[in-house]
Design a protein that fits this description.
Number of domains: 3
CATH topology of the largest domain: Rossmann fold
Number of helices: 18
Oligomer: single chain
Largest sheet: 4 strands, parallel
Shape: globular
Number of strands: 7
Strand content: 5-15%
Radius of gyration: 20 Å
Structural class: alpha/beta
Strand order of the largest sheet: 2-1-3-4
CATH class of the largest domain: Alpha Beta
Amino acid sequence: MLDNVISTLENCRFCLMCRHVAPVGMVTNQEAYTPHGMALLVTSQQRGLATWNAETVGIVFSEVDGGNSRTHCATDQPFEEALAAVRAELVVQGLAGTAVTQLHTHLTQWHNPYQPQLPQSATGAGQVALFAGDEAAYLWPETIPAVLKLLSAVGMEVVVGGYGRNNGLFAHSAGFPDLAAQLWQATLDELASVGAKQLLLLSAGDFYAFNDRRGGFSRPVSASAKVSPPDFIEVTDLLAERLAAGEIAFRKTEDETPWTYVDPTHAVRVPERHERVRGLVTAVMPTPPRELFWRKERAQPVGSTYIQFSSPALAERLTRARLQDAQASGAQLLICEDPATLHHLNRYAGEYGLRVQGLYELLAQRVIGHQ
């Protein structure tokens, strides 16, 4: 039932506070695709003034779930979570559509939406684990060896876990909260089996999924292993701390190509990371950045959330909008650490005369004392 979220949508239906940063509304220029429009649609359906059909269901499944709406809400309305609950109700009613049903099947069978391959089990034991996930494993595999090299440079040997497993946010966004809990729990159980007390995460999306904030699964306890969950930290945060402490250093690159840092999808949900990660980039780049207009607290996502499956045309438009922003800044080189953001930017970057560079790989190439 929607009773637990309808109050949020009642508050959002005539509010325009976050409209100026609503990603899908911005690329479609249609009011129906803004938070205000979507909330009005759902509350109208509740009142019997609208019906669920292919068009209205498609609008609800076009909400990107990137965090922009709640980030810009003065009253902290959980709009994205409310829409996820609506989508869950539509799934139960069998109205979600073929693409969403196929996504559920793939996540259930393979624990990821990208490849028909089960996650690799963690081997060895240790107190620190790295969550490799499905996006690094299948979309930008250069990430993992680069991160392992960087961690070695600061004296850390880690167990690689969750290789090829989704962090659960896809499932929750698409309307499968029980499946999301199962995916999260599978990773926590795996970590318990290797004795991990700390989990290193590759992206803002992973940090959001594991460290907080969704659907009652915040910092869950591994029921089967009877242990508390580990502490979670982004690799960029760890490297920024070690850089500030003088425990790692980098050589500047000679490449003076105009560059920009692209805040990844979900970055607005973790605002404390904005300056830290920029400090890492400037440690290796010899020139100042060409900052994007849509950056930091108003950063926009690429099409890397679940909508790449539910609404692929809209996902592409979101990605192209980020490339257009970069092009307008005068940048020619786009730097980001998030495997999914890199993958989606790279699909179309050449059409805009842009080049995409993974931050972890760049840092690994320039770390002092590790050739």
